[in-house]
Design goal:
- This is Regulatory protein RecX.
- Belongs to the RecX family.
- Modulates RecA activity.
- By secondary structure, the protein is mostly helical.
- The protein has three domains: about 5-55, Orthogonal Bundle (Arc Repressor Mutant, subunit A), CATH 1.10.10; about 60-100, Arc Repressor Mutant, subunit A; about 105-160, Orthogonal Bundle (Arc Repressor Mutant, subunit A), CATH 1.10.10.
- Helices cover about 75% and strands about 0% of the residues.
Length: about 160
C-alpha cells in the first residue's frame, strides 16, 4: 500500500489521535482500525508503518503497562498477565516482563502496601471476617497464593500489635 493512498493517510491520522492518550498494543490498534471499518490491507500497512516509526512497540507498551499497574494500580502478576493477554501481547514477552517487575520481594511489598491501606476499613469486625476480606481482596487484585498467605498473616500480626 502506498503512503499517498487517501485511505492509508486517513487511517494513519486516526491512529495518531488514538495514540495521543497513551501507549497502545498492536492488537489494540488493529481492533481500533477494524471498528472504524478499514480494510485489512490498510490496517496491515498502517501498523507496519507505525512500527517503522517506533510509534508501536509491544515490548515498550507492556513494560509501561506493568509499571503503571504495580505503582498506581497495586495489582498482582496474575491479573496483569491476564490484562496483557487481552491486549494481545505475546506470552513469552509477558513472562519476561513480569519476571523482572514482580520479584518475590516486590510483589510482597505491593500487596502489603495495599492491605495496610485497606485494613483500616475493617476496624471493629471480627478477626476471621477481616482475614477473609483481605484474602479475597488480594485474590481479586491478582496476587499469588503464597504471597497472599504471607502478607495477610504479617499485616494481621502487625494490626494485633497496634
Amino acid at each position: 500500500m502506498r503512503e499517498n493512498n487517501p485511505e492509508f493517510q486517513k487511517a494513519k491520522k486516526q491512529v495518531f489521535r488514538y495514540l495521543r492518550y497513551r501507549e497502545r498494543s498492536e492488537k489494540e490498534v488493529r481492533d481500533y482500525l477494524r471498528r472504524k471499518g478499514y480494510r485489512s490491507e490498510v490496517i496491515k500497512a498502517v501498523i507496519e508503518r507505525l512500527k517503522e516509526l517506533d510509534y508501536l512497540n509491544d515490548r515498550r507498551f507492556a513494560e509501561l503497562w506493568v509499571k503503571n499497574r504495580t505503582n498506581s494500580g497495586r495489582r498482582g502478576p496474575i491479573l496483569v498477565k491476564k490484562e496483557l493477554q487481552e491486549k494481545g501481547i505475546d506470552h513469552n514477552l509477558i513472562e519476561d516482563i513480569i519476571s523482572v517487575e514482580y520479584t518475590p520481594g516486590r510483589e510482597f511489598d505491593i500487596a502489603c502496601e495495599l492491605l495496610k491501606k485497606k485494613i483500616k476499613l475493617y476496624q471493629g469486625e471480627n478477626f476471621e471476617t477481616v482475614k477473609a476480606r483481605l484474602w479475597k481482596l488480594l485474590e481479586r487484585k491478582g496476587f499469588r497464593y503464597q504471597v497472599i498467605e504471607n502478607v495477610v498473616e504479617q499485616v494481621l500480626k502487625e494490626e494485633i500489635k497496634n
